[in-house]
UniProtKB/TrEMBL annotation:
This is DinB family protein. Gene3D superfamilies: dinb family like domain (1.20.120.450). It comes from Nocardioides plantarum. InterPro entries: DinB/YfiT-like, MST-like. It comes from the Bacteria. Pfam families: MST.
Amino acid sequence: MTDALTPPPGLWVHPDVDPRHDGDPVLRGERSVVLDYLRAYRLTFEMKLEGLDAEQLARRSVPPSTLSLLGLLRHLAKVEHSWARRVVEGRPELDRLYRTEAEPDLDFDGAVGDPAVVEDAWTSWRREVAHAEALYADVDLDRLCPHPDGELEARDVLVHLVEEYARHCGHADLLRECIDGRTGQ
């Protein structure tokens, strides 16, 4: 028998204390549902990286891929920054995080097993998520946002972010399993 703090075998956390399920009643409305899915996927992603050191986070999947958990963290910080600040706020002149003209894949290529790189990645991701959460809390979902491929509704951005996190949580599952065998949930 397990107590509320001890997860059953194979689970990350006990379902009764899972931070992705806050006990609120069923959500209603497009904004609430989409933002809750995004919140849950962000928490899931964060949980998948929990407890790993710099070398483990930077471990590459399979050659020649540069995919790593640290690379995903940097990539998602870049994604949050680009969609919230450059697209929804309409500030395309801002420099992109972890990307330069000379190094377009710096998010993955620069993900090395250095504690300072890990600290920077977590700081960037948390800053960009906090900024995006504040922005999306009140954004008009019908609002048109400038994009190089044409205007997008803000709802398109939010749905894309849900899709982006869902895909990368799957990658994180596989990467984490290769590191220490933890899977799922």
